[in-house]
Design a protein that fits this description.
Six copies of one chain form a homohexamer.
Chain A: E1 2-7, H1 15-23, E2 31-36, E3 40-41, H2 47-66, E4 71-74, H3 82-88, E5 93-94, H4 97-107, E6 111-115, H5 121-131, E7 137-142, H6 153-171, E8 175-178, H7 187-196, E9 203-204, H8 206-220, E10 237-238
Helix pairs in contact in A: 2-3, 4-8
């Protein structure tokens, strides 16, 4: 099976690392490739970034289906372009939020998101409300580091631990969801640090959940409901 | 005060009628003007149409603020581009769904939406979930007429009455919300027909609610929360 | 159009200030007048006060309709007598809570109420539950000043700012609703102080929302649902 | 222990039957007496009736406490005057709705109310929302017989059975709550008829639940929370 | 009437105290007896303990019905074996959670549970979700004392007061539910201490609520819905 | 990786078919084996069956961990023994309900369950409430065929199609979840029949979802939260 990862920003400098991360969660028969956008924003940290990216993401998803991919992962926690993409293709399409939120709900029924910036709280909340899962969302916390500065991983790790501990101790979380797909390769170490602090909770990496979920769907012959996401009617559209 | 209506499609053939409708709900000191898009879809009936329209809508909202408008109404029941627009301007911005849903909730606590096509049910549901108002939504029904065919108003009126009656009698609705901003000038007559059928319920026209709500906000010196919709950070964006 | 404001207490000493406040939110063609009660409580701070006021409020609403008013605002955040009044007249009737709560929900989806006394928390919660909007209510906080002492505006302003900051920082509110219609003329200054403290959120004055909403309804030819609030059947009633 | 039943209407013609019904659910050491109102409505079928009755109900509850009653049942499914009464006394006070709704929730988690008139649906819904129990309410149905005509018990029984069957078969109810305290002495026979129709569900009589619940509270030394229902502050009140 | 209390653990050393407590909440005509298990766990503090106890609890409930008991109280806050027992008998069966949660909801609409161990929070949450009452649950707090050490009542009382105060002051509780049926005889003294600390809230003892509720049901001729809990079909079962 | 399937009933006659089904959803590196119980019920169709099976299921899960399995699927839609098993092992354990419900929620946000018997509706509802997903559950329908008669697949297929169509057309479902893990090998054909009837919705086979989900968790190094499911404390337990 062939899974396409769409990095919804205009740089390919993360593609290799994204590939490595994604491939680590793939079965032997699952092939992963990674593309980024030609046009769109440098990173996604606002509804404005999302709408600038969405048309180009959707194009990439159409292209992926044309190139015989079996599923697509739009690697952003905001799920930009997921709904429009589901309308224009028949293969399963997931973003970063939904698979992670659902996976966390399998592991316990109160979990928190630790994301990059405070400003993303309404976006996460909207995604949780749309998914019908608000009852399980204990809190949304932020490390206060912009996406493009996540590479200073020492600061990031420090803040992740701090916010995850607060989520557990103050907000009642029993699992942590990393709230940005740019937080690569950190779930296992955070999980270990929390366990060492006597807070033995799972940490869900959205890439792991998304790549995993696509394999579930592909093996089961499933894709999104075409009653929920029917093909757009033909009409004039200029862009 | 000056209110700009953005018709989020690539034709100006409805602008005059939209203007007439909107102006009917404006106070003497409220000036309305109407623009449509240069690029985008011919009508909005899918998530795909929404994302193709959203960037151009957002541009128009920015232009409206630049031209000293006091508020903007994006006249579509899907609320396309509303969230991104709120991030890039300080004046209040509303779409068709939220003002109508909130107004209906003031008039009773169980209301139904009658929209154009069955396929829009998930979109309406998502908007209701995001707004935190699902408890009040009795049902979403459709007249099964595409947006661009709404002008055959006889068929439309017939089907609206039929679906509104079902919403009241079968789904327990106590008010009706017209679920497409293209259903112009029909609320009062539908309300009368329903009353004649011994179903005395209000019918909320989304244009009335939106134009009305903008005046509420402008007179009160209010706009959307800048904690919920902060300005997007500076970064490279190509489009 | 003619809007009647009913001050649901037995003093007319606030009428002038209420009139000034309300008129500030009215369109040029909207005429406001203000009446208070002959019988009832000196202020409304309990369910007990509400039921003592409700019959007299309802009488005033009937009188307002008889005097050709187009809408009535019962100026109390507890919404006393709103439901009974809606049954006995055909013109729109609103209290202080519903319009403010709905307006806040248009501006963001997590907001807090700052009211006068802790003891009103269950009352506010009941109103929010009845309106189907609990999901948006971040918290209810109080300044701990009785209604009739609100006139010491320095203390009030200080405590409002303090509680509003806590609501935003501790409870996750993205907008503030003033939880007493006696908190007149304070929304704009509180909004400014919060913005100065880097907490740029809207502050909803219930009078602004109510007067605004009535104009929305009147211009749209709407009133509460007569299926939800049918006329009371004829029967013997002594009082 | 001494339990006072307040029939919140201006006739004593039901008092004897109410007493017989209530006494049937009392333990040997529980003494019941019944009073009706001097002023108020002839029956309660609207919010308007409720507010006309509430002040006089509250007076009776104060009197009951003065006369050393240990608890009060306001025998109406709308729970009129319950909240105000709880503020002014320390003994437990219940209406018809809350005890019945809670009892039904102990017996299954989807139940329907069958009440007298369609018009009471919003009232029942408000009570269920305030109680936080909407998730368990399958539907509200009506026999379409006014309160004061309930005495034709043949028609009533026929319609009760019909609506209860529909509630079970169409709305998924697993228990029935009689939605009017005037439906006296019918629960057991309806339960039997339903069982005979292969629909073995409990039928909750609100009087049974209320009288029973008061005994629970009195034996346990419990009353409503004084943080939720604190005493009203002293102030001028004219009535 | 005859009520059987099943202590779902393999010791009878609490039976006498349980009997004394339960009998204190019984009417003169209600006879109480108490049995404990032959097999099962020494105490119930995990889902694992619950499933080990459930088959033996269910056996005891069958036996109770055979011995002409009119109702059964399984005295554990986790409600172990309640659902299976309801399927195999026709008499009413309650555990510790549901009666207490429903009783608290009659007294206010925000209450907290104070239980023995932090680890029971998911169990309480599951019970509240199943009952449809999550909206009323302000928080779950723990005294951090295992069930079998509850007998050091000084430490227990101290911690109960501390956690109850926090529940009221930090979580907004307006009533307290004791979250372990082993916390015998403490409700009244805790209630007094809280009142002395100016926190006048009811404290619900689950034994009081359960014994009380059974009397409500028995006097009203009610038991759990046989549509919700139908008899198990005949089949081979080995154990 | 090695996945153990526990068939929670006392026959091994389904093991081979279960193995074939499960293996069809496994990646090349995932090895599946299947065991059934020595003691317990012949099939699971009641809470009573669940509690009789749970101790033996839990034993099998402990044994699976001892035998170096990486994850366990308890193949029953009621999720019997899942919670207790999670407490006693560190490897991931899933039942039939949760993975299917979460997978369906990824594909749309309104789905229905079609299960074997009407009597299982409360059980499914409890599972959905515990998972925090009630908002997405459109309905629970039944084919009215006992588990042990499912092998007459013609009747089963006919009734599945009939109930699935009703779920979509009357209840608004946009996906179908097969509500019994004994409905083996039917998802794809039902999906095709529905598509032929112009109802293009996904049909989720709980075995596909469970086997798939376990692989997600195992590849991601995740298991259930140990704060939610901590190890049971040592104590005396006889069984």
């Amino acid at each position: 099976m062939k899974i396409r990862v769409v990095v919804p920003i205009i740089t390919d400098r993360f593609n290799e690392e994204v590939h490595r991360e994604a491939a680590g969660f793939a079965a032997p028969d699952a092939e992963i490739d990674v593309v980024s956008l030609k046009k769109g924003p440098a990173s996604i940290e606002s509804f404005y970034d999302e709408i600038l990216a969405a048309p180009f993401i959707t194009d990439e998803v159409i292209r992926a289906e044309g190139e015989k991919c079996d599923g697509v992962f739009i690697t952003c926690f905001g799920d930009p372009g997921v709904e429009s993409s589901r309308e224009v293709v028949d293969i399963p399409v997931v973003g970063g939020f939904q698979p992670a939120a659902l996976t966390a709900s399998l592991l316990c029924d109160r979990w928190s998101v630790v994301t990059v910036l405070e400003r993303l709280r309404p976006m996460v909340r909207h995604n949780a409300r749309k998914l019908g899962l608000m009852e399980n969302l204990a809190s949304v916390r932020a490390v206060d580091i912009p996406v493009l500065s996540l590479e200073d991983s020492r600061l990031l790790k420090e803040r992740l631990l701090e916010q995850a501990e607060k989520a557990i101790q103050e907000d009642g979380a029993e699992a942590i969801v990393l709230g940005c797909t740019g937080m690569l390769g950190l779930a296992q170490s955070l999980m270990k640090e929390l366990a060492d602090a006597d807070l033995p909770v799972p940490v869900v990496d959205p890439t792991a959940a998304a790549i995993g979920y696509l394999q579930v769907l592909i093996r089961a012959g499933l894709a999104h409901s075409k009653l929920a996401y029917p093909s757009p009617p033909e009409k004039k559209r200029s862009f």
